[in-house]
TrEMBL record:
Native source species: Hippocampus comes (Tiger tail seahorse)
Protein name stated in the entry: Tumor necrosis factor receptor superfamily, member 1a
Residue ranges of domain TNFR-Cys in the record: 65-107, 108-149
GO annotation (BP), single: inflammatory response
Organism lineage: Eukaryota, Metazoa, Chordata, Craniata, Vertebrata
Residue stretches of each TNFR-Cys repeat: 65-107, 108-149
Length: 383
């Protein structure tokens, strides 16, 4: 019995080790190929789309050229090519090069207009600025940048307007005359007074920076000790039908730290300001957008947020329901934005800087969806 017990014990100890040894390494494919059902298939080159995937090792994928009016600019295994862009003459665009299978149409702004970049894939032609009578042209308007104007001589800029020089200021040095010698004592006293004001201002700024640093360190230490609680009160419950579509999605948190300076200075003690930090659940934010933004404008919104056409096409291919596809597009933006801002992606606890949420609000207002932006600002107490 004793020998049998020893043999059973050894078998129990060796079984996990043998299982690990027997586990094959995950297969990897060379550059330009992708893994499909354990087989490395080649991608289609630019200008082509996928007709049929390879069926066995050593076989090649069946690709066909994009039809007229469509293009594909990169290696892919998509069954659809993308639609060519048309230059909009009503929006002052002119065609520079026609659409080809491997390249989209190239458009530039017509003379008298320059390209205003909205995001990585969206631009708009804006009429070039004309310098006013009290300004002179420093840089001519080009297709890439607007006219640059500055105030004429003997003028200085105040609140965006050029005003004539009347006293000694930075842009009116010609009015800064040296005082007579008998007033040298008064000049010296005036100079000393100016120096005192400068030093006083520097001390005040240094004290404020020190207070902010102390508050930051205390906040950081307290956050490490106390895990943040989910702010379920700031996000309304999503419809049950929408939750059923995405019940397997992991809930990620977007934490927005957006405090006015006055709030920080007013709370220079161990207690944290009420505005640090505000937590927003990613899926709650996306549900709010899907409920508020018209269906016909969702793709325009995600394009303006930087989501590529490839991601949009993939979401539409993978999900038949438009709402589910739109959800995946917005989730792709949240994930990539969190990674770009150092938030670690879309997993639990991912951080999204307030500037990115402000960008979302700006895009909504630019699309004439100010009511949706105001709804988000009210719902999440964004100032």
């Amino acid at each position: 019995m004793g020998a049998l017990s020893v043999l059973l014990l050894l078998a129990c100890l060796l079984t996990p080790t043998l299982a690990l040894i027997a586990t094959p390494n995950e297969k990897t494919c060379p550059d330009g190929d992708y893994l499909e059902n354990g087989i490395c298939c080649n991608k289609c080159p630019p200008g082509f789309k996928l007709v049929e995937k390879c069926l066995a090792e050593g076989m090649r994928s069946n690709c066909t050229p994009c039809p007229t009016g469509q293009f594909m600019e990169q290696m892919n295994y998509s069954p659809k090519c993308m639609q060519c862009k048309s230059c909009n003459k009503k929006k002052h665009e002119v065609e520079v090069s026609k659409c080809q299978r491997h390249q989209n149409t190239r458009c530039h702004c017509e003379d008298g207009y320059y390209t205003f970049v909205i995001d990585s894939e969206t631009t708009e032609c804006i009429k070039c600025k004309l310098c006013r009578s009290d300004e002179r042209e420093v840089q001519k308007c080009t297709t890439e940048r607007n006219t640059v104007c500055e105030c004429k001589a003997n003028f200085f800029r105040v609140n965006g307007k050029c005003e004539p020089c009347k006293s000694c200021v930075a842009d009116c040095k010609h009015l800064c005359k040296s005082l007579p010698s008998h007033n040298s004592k008064d000049s010296e006293e005036s100079g000393n007074g100016y120096l005192v004001h400068v030093l006083t201002g520097a001390v005040v700024v240094a004290v404020m920076l020190l207070m902010l640093l102390i508050l930051y360190m205390a906040t950081k230490r307290l956050i490490k000790k106390s895990p943040l609680k989910s702010s379920s009160q700031t996000a309304e419950a999503s419809p049950e039908s929408s939750e059923a579509l995405f019940q397997n999605e992991e809930v990620s948190i977007i934490a927005v730290i957006d405090c006015p300076e006055s709030a920080l200075l007013g709370k220079a003690n161990s207690k944290l300001p009420d505005c640090v930090p505000l937590e927003i659940k990613t899926h709650d934010l996306i549900y709010t957008l899907l409920d508020s933004v018209p269906v016909t404008q969702v793709k325009q919104l995600v394009r303006s947020l930087g989501v590529t056409e490839t991601v949009i096409e993939r979401a539409e291919l993978d999900h038949r329901a438009s709402k589910e596809a739109h959800y995946q597009m917005l989730k792709a933006w949240a994930d990539s934005s969190s990674q770009a801002s150092g938030g670690g992606g879309g997993g639990r606890g991912g951080m999204l800087h307030s500037a990115l949420l402000q960008e979302l609000l700006l895009k909504l207002k630019h699309m004439h969806l100010g009511a949706v932006a105001e709804e988000l600002e009210t719902k999440y107490s964004i100032h």
